[in-house]
DNA sequence: GTTAGGG
DNA sequence: CCCTAAC
């Protein structure tokens, strides 16, 4: 079942170079590679299938015992999804050990939490390890992933950092139930204080009352988890470094599968490299370890995509597996004499259970009820019957935090700092952001349907994230309108687009103005805004959170000597935090004109020059953008007008595009005997002028 | 940091 | 637009 579904989805959307890639020319022929990957993943498929089957059986048995079958009535789809999740989790755990990329996955069903608990309570026998019920499974996984701030299992315990609060053996939470897979992962991990994860631990004897769980997710501790995993590598690479050690602890958000992950990696290294260090260092720079960043990006970008990401994650898994053998580590970062802790909780998004049948996730408490139309709800019932949409939020994405503390700080203070930070985030105003297909949905007044969150819609690309609860969002400084060709003869110069401070749904059908405006228009029309624009305020703003709309929740202020300074990583990872792509900025005719002209003169191999010449003031247009645009222009020009989309580009320009394209194709983008191509005489003239 | 291409 | 390999 699982297998089938997965295949249906396919997962070749992106390639994950696990190993040094072959030359571009070779890579181009992707067909082969794909098949290879398929095979490689095959094993996992089987594993998944088996796991799925086991789970299935377990589930059924469990449900038969439980007073109320948890997922019993679940629609096939629902079951599949869940199973898939669990399977994934399972696999994750299995493959995780030793992997350079630790990942976390928590197949929890928020909405079903209550059920789990009741089930457990009512049926003590479920505790039996021999029986792994679905809920059991989830529970376990939850334990490690959720509460865990996992320290790796390896020697140098000395440098071992327990960034987390009290060291509660996982058993405490998991109630001594650790199964192989989970155990490895959770084994010696230190649990974050349970405060962070209420609920979710069915086994905890004195679990928090249901009332606790009935809180809105956003307020429920269970919604946020931080798990810090120590990077296995550290131990491998740096066997011991007890004294004068700089610990670079930073999180690589490439550790989980997207749903529930808030993990952090720890790695330690000494400032003074030893021989081994050097080598390792080098190794890290090799292509092998490049896997990491790749994964990271991959993972991150998928985070918001819910279910869909799952299928793609197969590759991820695969990669991770290989990682164990090939690349034991990732990047390290040294920060002066202090060690830096940066954990970027990249939690995931939720997972949606789209079940036509009712009662599959029966929620006894009021979790849902509290949903004030906001995404904090676990489930949202909208409209009668079919049109209702049910949500099961696995977890929220938490903004990245960057903690910097002096070397002299105690571990305890570090713990405290981290805890405070988290607490501040949870306690301090946070709001929930809804992300659909990687874009933030801002219009709170829109209905789910209007927004595209419908029963049968892209629920798989829906995500929720926590954001600073700063009401006033500083108006992003509109990209300064760029004048094309600021210099000389520019017949296409356009008046600077007005910043459009207040973007009301501009109905101006077609605004000839440059991208800036158009984009804005776009935004307003869709009521969706992509990535945060460059905040007016920069790093400074971080403290008050304004500016960087979603990221940088930096509740903690500067610091006293020993206090720990928390600094948002905003600058560097501003965008990657959420991994949102830049807002789309369709090229205006004027821009196209400028581009064409520049290319006619400069050719197609000097994008940087093109950029400087025609788009020097257009900060949002990189030379890569220009190159890409040219690429599309060439394509556009070569297809029939009927197939073209977007703002029509004057045929005249397209003709010039083709001319220039063919011309430069033959002239190798540079030296060229003039007068060779008739149609471009004019161009030649220009070129000459330029070259002169 | 740029280019050139595939995704 | 993103992401990379290759320069």
UniProtKB/TrEMBL annotation:
Molecular-function GO terms, alphabetical: telomeric DNA binding
Cellular location(s): Nucleus
Biased composition (Basic and acidic residues): 357-368
Domain annotation Ubiquitin-like: ranges: 389-459
Keywords associated with the record: DNA-binding, Nucleus
One Pfam short name: Ubiquitin_TPR1
Classification via PROSITE patterns: HTH_MYB, MYB_LIKE, UBIQUITIN_2
Residues covered by region (Disordered): 350-381
Domain (HTH myb-type): residue spans on this chain: 579-638
GO cellular component, as recorded: nucleus
Signal peptide: none
Main location (coarse class): nucleus
DNA-binding keyword on record: yes
CDD domains per UniProt: SANT_TRF
UniProt domain Myb-like: residue ranges: 579-634
Alphabetical list of PANTHER family matching this protein: TELOMERE REPEAT-BINDING PROTEIN 4-LIKE, TELOMERIC REPEAT BINDING PROTEIN
Protein name: HTH myb-type domain-containing protein
Organism: Coffea canephora
